[in-house]
């Protein structure tokens, strides 16, 4: 996967110049986990809860923490849910972290609402800005 990163990063910089620089490389790396054919976008086929969970769970302890969501989404931006808020939206059992089951449950309902330009694929910026909206 590492060798594909320059391509992915290049696409992201074109798509989102404003915050591409402050976005951690790790977010792009994790997006690349979802983007299996490395075209810089995540299609419906590529977007599934298990893969997203793996992309989020940076330390592979089978729990997604606030910090891991934060790292994936990048810095909080004005008017958006914080990483902690987003965890709460999906955290059905209220333990403050997400299991793969909780991630999958949310993901199943989410593709359409994340795909804000309705081109049937998700960019990293679509994924980050819409991730776990309350509705
Ligand atoms: Ca793809
Ligand atoms: Ca973890
Ligand atoms: Ca939980
Ligand atoms: Ca789209």
Automatic annotation (TrEMBL):
Signal peptide as annotated in the record: 1-20
SUPFAM superfamilies for this protein: EF-hand
Coiled coil region boundaries: none
InterPro entries: EF-hand-dom_pair, EF_Hand_1_Ca_BS, EF_hand_dom
Pfam families: EF-hand_5
Source taxon at top rank: Bacteria
Name the UniProt record assigns to this protein: EF-hand domain-containing protein
Source organism of this protein record: Stenotrophomonas oahuensis
């Amino acid at each position: 996967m590492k060798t594909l990163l320059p391509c992915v990063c290049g696409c992201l910089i074109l798509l989102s110049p404003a915050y591409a620089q402050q976005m951690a490389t790790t977010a792009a790396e994790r997006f690349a986990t979802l983007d299996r054919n490395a075209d810089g976008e995540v299609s419906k086929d590529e977007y599934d809860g298990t893969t997203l969970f793996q992309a989020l769970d940076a330390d592979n302890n089978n729990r997604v923490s606030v910090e891991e969501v934060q790292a994936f989404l990048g810095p909080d931006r004005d008017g958006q849910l914080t990483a902690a808020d987003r965890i709460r939206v999906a955290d059905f059992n209220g333990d403050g972290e997400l299991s793969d089951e909780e991630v999958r449950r949310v993901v199943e309902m989410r593709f359409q609402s994340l795909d804000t330009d309705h081109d049937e694929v998700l960019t990293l910026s679509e994924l980050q800005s819409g991730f776990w909206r309350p509705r």
